[in-house]
Amino acid sequence: xxxxxxxxxxxxxxxxxxxxxxxxxxxxxxxxxxxxxxxxxxxxxxxxxxxxxxxxxxxxxxxxxxxxxxxxxxxxxxxxxxxxxxxxxxxxxxxxxxxxxxxxxxxxxxxxxxxxxxxxxxxxxxxxxxxxxxxxxxxxxxxxxxxxxxxxxxxxxxxxx
Length: 161
Hints:
alpha+beta, seven-stranded antiparallel β-sheet
């Protein structure tokens, strides 16, 4: 789907910002699908993004034979869903899929690390924060090939117009 700058800025970026995490779907060399939940995806522009590749075991292996994958973002906010259900319509899209092509694995840049650190800062007082996110250092680049809206009947009929 051709995404204009206006649709990207007004509909897709807010959806991504309101998603706690997303899922990346890849396929193994045996043809077995695998979905990886990941919370560190950063969309830089409507054409490219990165994610911190620390806990992903299947993505590096699966990307060797197939560089294409799908990322799905879902607005998982309870208030968003409750308001939408009462109104019978989503004010903004509830979910979007992106077809991507994996790029290289590289050392993170300072500004990239800063974006992710701000995202998880509210948990900095926890033991889990130190265990999970203290040494996030390598990112996987990706190119966004296509956007595929998630339609949920009449509640989403005019989301991408």
